[in-house]
Every structure is written in C-alpha cells, then in structure tokens.
Amino acid sequence: MPSITREEVAHLARLARIELTDAELDHLAPQLDQIIALVGQVSQVAADDIPPTSHALPITNVMRPDENVPCLTPEQALAGAPAAEEQRFRVPRILEED
User: Fold this and answer.
1) What pLDDT, in 10s, does the model give residues 9-30?
2) In the chain, how many H helices and how many E strands?
3) What Rg value do the Cα atoms of the chain yield, rounded?
4) Ramachandran region, residue 93 (left: φ > 0; alpha: ψ -120 to 50; beta: rest)
5) Contact criterion met (CB below 8 Å) for 20 and 28
6) Closest to 9 (Cα-Cα) out of 29, 30, 27
7) Whole-number Å distance between alpha carbons of 98 and 91
8) The CATH number of domain 1-46 is 1.10.20.60
9) Is a pLDDT exceeding 60 seen at residue 1?
C-alpha cells in the first residue's frame, strides 16, 4: 500500500490554507498514512448481508390522535403579557421605518 509522503501532506496543507512547520509535516505524514490504512480495513468488512441504515436502532414515530380541546380566549392569552395592543402582544420596535 502506498504511503503518504511529507510532500503530499504539505500539498494538502497548502490546499487547506494551513501553515505547517517542518516538524508538524514530519509528525502528520505517518498519522495520515495510518488513518488511510485503517479506513481501508473498514471498507474490507464483509457487510454484503447488512442493509444500509441511517440509525442503529429502528425508529418509529409516536403519534397521538388529534383531539379538539378548548383553546384560550384572546383575553386569557394576553393576561400575563407585560403589554398588549388590539388583542396582540406589544413588543418593542426593533426595526426603524423608512
């Protein structure tokens, strides 16, 4: 299996606009080589009989039946509001009008 060279790491660093010292290049080259080797091992796993999944466990939606229930009146909804105007919550203006 071909190994990652120091020059390839330097090229990748330039593409990613990452400045690496010579010591960092020497340190990262074997690490990247090992990472690529491990990814290669994972891809060799015999998984032909395993269906692709998005989650490890099956997921089901828990639904409840729709029920009509009484809702709040405008007065009840606005009862705890610090300020109300024309049956609406009054909030501070955040945008100026032109």
Assistant:
1) 999 999 999 999 999 999 999 9
2) 3, 2
3) 30
4) beta
5) yes
6) 29
7) 19
8) yes
9) no
